[in-house]
Design a protein that fits this description.
The structure is a single chain. The chain is mainly beta. Among the domains are: 2-91, Sandwich (Immunoglobulin-like); 895-980, no CATH class. Helices cover 11% and strands 39% of the residues. It contains 18 helices and 68 strands. The strands form 16 sheets. It has a 22-stranded antiparallel β-barrel. Helix 12 packs across helix 15 (942-955). The longest helix is centred in the C-terminal third of the chain and has 14 residues, at 942-955.
């Protein structure tokens, strides 16, 4: 677009303007309007000539490069003369000024992409270098300008290739050799971009032209070239053997000159990689039956192995194992199938420690694309493409989530094959000189599986004594079999041993029209997506699998270890033969695990469409379809050549999924049949609790077929306005001339309302996990005589788990659950009755689509030397975001009307006393709410009984588990429970999340000149939210009643982020001062270097208190909340730091040792004085705190990295058409160690602040220096 004017500046109407694609010779023509303006819409990115003719003037020819998703402003100044005289002009950096809207982002061409050091050779890698972007890496996905990380959109030639499942990646890769141009937009999209509220990555695929072009290439990196990792060196392990070989070729040209063109690209990768991982394994002392803690008097060792230890109970003289059996032989047999620790600093350092290992995770990929372009005439063009992608891999993306340690040999026990294809077609029709229509159609088909080794197979391989049953081996999850406590020899927990398969499709039909009308460029269009999806899985996220499992643990779901089975809690008066107050849950878990106490035996069973049970082992499977429809209209109004107003409106909706056999249920009020909605339900529960009343309707789960209800209602209200103003001032003198220059600046501001994309993991997978067509079958807390008389000392009426609980391998064959049929609505009984559920997953029937209000303001300035400088403000204010609540959250604000005391006040009083080793005070709330409880159990008070059975729940902040027991006590007294407890967690995805993002951005870009180009940016930002997570996260608010208690810096809030990249052609060889004859020039010429620097400050760092602090979760699944700092505290990377010995906190919460000694640890710690830091935090007070440690966190370890390339291109052959390229890419060239910020758990003082591993940067599998050699031949 541009304006035609004469030498005086007067506009020239009726001038003939031709736009010629220099690659295909395709041409478009137009006449300048009455204001001298001309516009060519929907121009394919590439190199063009703009030729302007007018009688009485010389012909003007301007060479211009059109970038993707960006207008090119090409003003033409005609000189008086004959039209046979030609004036040729090459557009410079001025073309980079964005003069039509307020989008912020950068574009890169193929040459940039190919010449930068990018390990994956994937154009999308470069998104991490954009301003406002928080790059991914260990434990974090990429976030753009404050958007949730599952809201980014990637389009290739106008077709959305974002994986619709979780939207964290694309369905197909985008190899650098298949891409013509890349553009990233980080803020304020136009109305035509309406599917997804995050960053937009627009890619234009490479295509053929009149001249033939081809290339062959290969890249190699292996362990001979690479450095060893810090983690390997620390563990005394040599470099693991790896080999990464990427190779391919491309070719493009004309089938018929000026008419038909083709392009093909094939690329393969053979990557024999390794995955560095830790597993938490029992120490030799724990295998010997000894539990150890650091107490006030030093190391406390409790030998349970022989069964004769007698220091438990209120007086400290009772038998800890009243059956006298000691270390369980089945447990020991399974533990002995794991190697001993080799890496201190993992686990608690005494009972458990780390086992570090390199696990092979080979990956083979094949990618191919074919493209055809045809020009029917100057008004009608067509293109089509077909892309195919194949992945065969052990592990998934270089990560192994299911590890086997059998035989002291680590192997990856999971594979994840993927097959994808994307056929597309596009027709462009210039209906008239001012009207263009573009129609696109595409089919994105993506199938993938996660083939983990099932627990049934794993249990068969282990064949642990006591695991054999008539239904086959039962997987024993000792200590729950998780890395946060104790792993299994083969990962058999739900998160790591589950099968999942998905077969997703995205049929896309897009039609856009552009109409030029005077100074207006109207654009409008519609997009329709058909989204068939088939999903099969062996899990329900957390809890049961379709394999039989037995959890051997305590204080988790069904078994609560009472004070009778535990030594006295340490206090000022008791300093030996005691357990520190923050370690009581750890004792309970080690105790139950060592003795083989079975918390539950469970399996996930499946029912058919008639709610009849299917055979055990059957997967959950849904076959669904959805429709998504979007439309928009927008106008770019060039009010004057220097001022453009953009305004637009988009609108769309996505239907709720329908399942072909109606295998979905809706949560309803069992009494009324009305659907349960999140905000209304929770508000009713709060209001009742504050008045001392119970709001606890019984839930029913009605099938959609029987109820006639949809899974959720469609949100038809998603209207999204956009507006922007761009001013390109012309100031030739004075102060304004110095500031703005003559057409050398753009001042822009804009507003955009954008809506989230509802990903399949939310819209389909959550509803398929509702109660009804699957059921968690559980035998909870089986007694020692569950399948017979039991072993020695069995006493099912013994009153404590040490006497009454089933011990694996001792008390006979494990009890097994039995599948049942059901009728709609399904009404599970309360916990812990048979038939109660572990988890329910639902979507709020009134769910709204998340939305964000985006604003930005920027000033671009062209500087000498082909440079553009931009300074900008970007704001994003997100509301009604999809987040989950737990409807079974404990009403901690519940008022006892008789005393005026709330549960929160009573709980704080008891927990504060127990944490400091004092006796629990008698609290009116417990006495009045549990009348007759003390008498029924022979205790002095209800408080005393509750504390005796749940003391660790008080000290460790496990309010959710405490309320499950309190509800059970009330039902035993004939009273109503506070919660329904029909499922321990009643997960509801609703729409109450919010966040705020404010950022200042500076960007400096120098276009290529004199062989040098550089682009750099700096972002200073602040991102706050209430604990937001993406739609793939199965978590929920720690406080569903008041999510704002967690409001504070976001998990990805890196205050400062800096990126820059450069390319430099060394000034040597032909045409330079440093040159010589042909041979010398061949040696000296063609050398270039490029590099990428990234750096950022640390993310928020907080101290974990627990996952049930506000009663928002349970032991099955919780939501972490954070301890409150008592004074400001800084964290940083400190070296030479060992353990702090003899720490005694003034608040009375802890006495003992903190952190790991220099002999056993790494010497790195985020605190210079771990002991002082440990004492700087207090527990959350439910009755007082309106915010938690989330609001004022410390900052973790920062990061910086520099990648560099040295390369050479040598031209040879006729006219130098052949180019041989050599390159050496140095990733992390300085081999700089970037460390992971440790997780701070208050219950793990031995590892508090200890740094144990390195940070894996984006697109890498480890942190060490890698060197990749490249060779390519271009024609």
């Amino acid at each position: 677009m541009g304006t035609v004017s004469d030498a005086t500046g007067a506009v020239v109407p009726k001038a003939e303007v031709e736009l010629l694609n220099t690659s295909t010779n395709a041409a478009q023509t137009a006449l300048s309007d009455d204001t001298g303006g001309y516009v060519f819409s929907n121009v394919t990115p590439g190199v063009y000539k703009v030729t302007v003719k007018m009688a009485g003037f010389r012909t003007s020819v301007t060479n211009v490069t059109v970038e993707v998703n960006k207008s090119a402003d090409v003003p033409v100044h005609l000189e008086v003369g004959g039209d046979k005289e030609i004036v040729e002009v090459t557009a410079t950096a001025a073309a980079a000024l964005q003069t039509t809207d307020a989008q912020i982002g950068n574009a890169l061409s193929t040459d940039n992409i190919l010449r930068l050091p990018t390990l994956q050779r994937n154009a999308i890698e470069l998104m991490n270098l954009q301003p406002g972007v928080v790059a991914g890496g260990t434990g974090l996905n990429m976030r753009v300008s404050g958007a949730i990380d599952d809201q980014n959109t990637v389009s290739l030639d106008g077709i959305d290739i974002t994986s619709n499942l979780v939207a964290s990646n694309t369905s197909i890769p985008t190899p650098a050799d298949s891409v013509e141009e890349f553009r990233a937009n980080v803020s304020n999209p136009t109305a035509s971009l309406s599917r997804g509220s995050g960053g937009q990555i627009t890619l234009i695929g490479r295509r053929g032209g009149n001249e033939y072009h081809w290339a062959l290439y290969e890249y190699l990196q292996n362990n001979d070239l690479n450095s060893n990792t810090w983690d390997n060196n620390r563990a005394g392990q040599p470099k693991a053997v790896i080999r990464d070989n990427r190779y391919g070729g491309r070719i493009g040209g004309a089938i018929k000159k000026n008419k038909t063109f083709f392009f093909d690209n094939y690329e393969a990768r053979r990557f024999n990689s390794v995955y560095q991982t830790n597993r938490t394994v029992p120490t030799q002392s724990l295998r010997n039956g000894i539990i150890e803690f650091n107490g006030p008097s030093g190391l406390e060792s409790f030998n349970l192995g022989g069964g004769s230890l007698a220091i438990c109970g209120a007086a400290g003289n009772a038998a800890c194992d009243p059956r006298g059996l000691g270390m369980n032989k089945s447990v020991l047999a399974q533990w002995n199938q794991m190697p001993l620790p080799n890496l201190p600093g993992i686990g608690d350092g005494l009972n458990t420690s780390g086992y570090f290992v390199n696990v092979g995770v080979p990956t083979n990929t094949d990618y191919g694309v074919m493209r055809l372009d045809h020009i029917f005439n100057e008004k009608l063009t067509f293109n089509a493409s077909f892309t195919y992608y194949r992945v065969d891999q052990v592990g998934n993306g270089g990560i192994c989530a299911d590890v086997s340690l059998l035989g002291n040999t680590a192997s990856c026990a999971i594979s994840a094959p993927q097959r994808s294809m994307v056929p597309t077609a596009q027709v462009t029709w210039q209906i008239s000189p001012t009207l263009v229509n573009v129609f696109r159609a595409g089919w994105v088909r993506d199938t993938s599986q996660s083939n983990a080794t099932s627990p049934s197979i794993g249990a068969g391989r282990l064949n642990t004594p006591g695991s054999q049953t008539p239904a086959g081996n039962v997987a024993l999850l000792i200590g729950s079999g998780v890395s946060t406590f104790i792993d299994s020899p083969i990962d058999m927990d739900t998160q790591r041993a589950r099968f999942q398969g998905q077969w997703q499709q995205d049929w896309q039909f897009v039609d856009d029209q552009t109409k030029i009308w005077g100074k207006h460029q109207f654009q409008y269009g519609v997009q329709v997506n058909k989204l068939p999806f088939t999903h099969a899985r062996a899990d329900k996220v957390i809890g049961s699998l379709t394999s039989l499992t037995a959890v051997v643990d305590g204080d988790q779901s069904y078994i609560s270890i009472p004070a009778a089975n535990r030594p006295i809690t340490c206090s000022g008066s008791v300093t030996s033969n005691c357990v520190p107050s923050n370690q009581t849950t750890s004792w309970d878990r080690y105790y139950a695990s060592m003795l083989g106490l079975v918390d539950n035996v469970s399996v996930l069973a499946v029912r058919d469409a008639n709610l009849q049970p299917q055979p055990l082992g059957t997967f959950i499977r849904d076959v669904t379809n959805q429709w998504a429809t979007y439309m928009y209209a927008q106008d770019s109004w060039r009010i004057k050549p220097s001022l453009t107003l953009y305004y637009g409106l988009s609108y769309g909706w996505q239907s709720s999924p329908t399942e072909q056999n109606n295998l979905q249920t809706v949560m309803v009020n069992a009494a009324t049949g009305a659907p349960i909605t999140g905000p209304e339900y929770l508000q009713s529960k709060i209001q009742a609790a504050q008045q001392g009343q119970i709001f606890n309707p019984t839930f029913g789960f009605a099938t959609v077929g029987a109820s006639g209800l949809p899974i959720y209602n469609v949100d038809y209200g998603d209207v999204a306005p956009r507006a922007a103003l761009a001013w390109n001032p012309s100031a030739k003198s004075g102060i304004l001339g110095k500031i703005f220059g003559d057409k050398k600046s753009v001042v822009r501001g804009g507003f955009a309302m954008v809506y989230d994309r509802s990903n399949t993991v939310q819209s389909v997978e959550i509803p398929m996990l509702g109660i009804g067509f699957d059921q968690n079958l559980i035998v909870g807390a089986p007694s020692c005589n569950a399948t017979g008389v039991g072993g020695a000392g069995c006493n099912p009426a013994g009153g404590n788990p040490g006497l009454s609980s089933f011990r694996v391998g001792t008390d006979g064959v494990l009890p097994l659950p039995t599948p049942t049929s059901a009728k709609s609505p399904i009404i599970p009984p309360p916990y812990p009755q048979t038939g109660s559920e572990t988890l329910s997953f639902q979507v709020d029937p009134n769910a709204k689509t998340g939305r964000s209000y985006n604003v930005d303001f920027s000033i671009q300035r062209e500087l000498p030397g082909n440079m553009i400088f931009e300074v900008a403000y970007v704001g994003r204010f997100s509301r009604q975001l999809p987040q989950a609540v737990n409807l079974n959250s404990a009403p901690y604000m519940f008022l006892d009307s008789a005393s005026g005391q709330t549960f929160a006040q009573a709980y704080d009083a008891v927990s504060n006393a127990l944490r400091t080793g004092k006796a629990a005070p008698v609290e009116p709330w417990f006495e009045n709410q549990f009348p007759g409880l003390a008498k029924a159990n022979g205790t002095a008070s209800a408080t005393a009984y509750i504390v005796s059975k749940n003391s660790s729940f008080f000290t460790q902040g496990n309010v959710g588990s405490l309320f499950l027991n309190l509800d059970n006590y009330r039902r035993g007294l004939g009273l109503q429970g506070y919660d329904s407890d029909q499922a321990q967690v009643e997960f509801l995805r609703t729409y109450i999340g919010y966040g705020n993002y404010n950022a200042g951005i500076m960007t400096l870009t120098k276009r290529m000149s004199h062989g040098f180009t550089i682009s750099g940016n700096y972002t200073l930002s602040r991102a706050n939210d209430d604990g937001l997570s993406n739609q793939n996260n199965a978590g929920f608010y720690s406080n569903s009643f008041n999510p704002s208690v967690q409001y504070g810096p976001s998990s990805y809030d890196r205050r400062s982020v800096m990126n820059f990249y450069y390319q430099y052609d060394l000034p040597a060889g032909k045409g330079h001062k440093l040159s010589g004859n042909g041979a010398v020039n061949a040696i000296l010429g063609g050398w270039y270097t490029s590099g990428v620097f990234t750096g950022w400050t640390g993310a928020p760092l907080k101290v974990n208190e627990g996952s049930q602090v506000w009663g928002g979760g349970s032991s099955v699944i919780g939501a972490t909340d954070y301890m409150v700092p008592t004074s400001p505290l800084n964290a940083s990377l400190n070296s030479g730091v060992g353990a702090s010995s003899g720490v005694s906190c003034s608040n009375g919460l802890f006495s003992g040792n903190v952190a790991t000694s220099l002999n056993n640890g790494t010497g790195y710690d985020v605190f210079g004085n771990p002991g002082a830091a440990y004492c700087n935090f207090r527990y959350i007070q439910l009755s007082q705190d309106g915010r938690t440690g989330s609001s004022n966190p410390m900052r973790g370890i920062g990061f910086w990295n520099f990648d560099m390339r040295m390369g050479k291109t040598t031209s040879f052959g006729p006219e130098g058409k052949y180019k041989l390229g050599y390159s050496a890419d140095f990733f992390n060239i300085f081999n700089h160690h970037n460390f992971n910020t440790p997780v701070l758990n208050y219950t793990s003082p031995a590892t508090f602040g200890v740094v144990t591993g390195t940070y894996t940067p984006p697109n890498r599998t480890n942190s060490a220096r890698w060197i990749e050699m490249g060779l390519r031949l271009d024609f």
